[in-house]
Automatic annotation (TrEMBL):
Transmembrane segments: none annotated. This is TraR/DksA C4-type zinc finger protein. Residues 38-68 form the Zinc finger DksA/TraR C4-type domain. It comes from the Bacteria. The lineage of its organism: Bacteria, Pseudomonadati, Pseudomonadota, Alphaproteobacteria, Caulobacterales. It comes from Brevundimonas vitisensis.
Length: 76
């Protein structure tokens, strides 16, 4: 895979991640209306404590940690 292919692959991944987040935000209940919210990466609910700390959270804590680790790995 050459540099152009790698750049296209990374670009495609970023676009897909942004689209998944947009789909999740459109499907999520309004932040001012409490209720269970589902992680965009797995079928688990986003923890109430996480939503209290970050009402716009799209991922459960384990999936968020994994996404951040993947981003750090991709940046290296």
């Amino acid at each position: 895979m050459d540099d152009a292919d790698r750049a296209q692959h990374v670009s495609d991944q970023i676009v897909e991640r942004i689209m998944a987040q947009a789909r999740a935000l459109n499907a999520a209940p309004p932040v001012d209306r409490p209720g269970p919210r589902i992680c965009i990466d797995c079928p688990d609910h986003i923890e109430a404590a996480r939503l209290a700390a970050n009402p716009g959270a799209l991922r459960c804590t384990p999936c968020q940690a994994e996404a951040e680790a993947a981003r750090r790995g991709a940046a290296a």
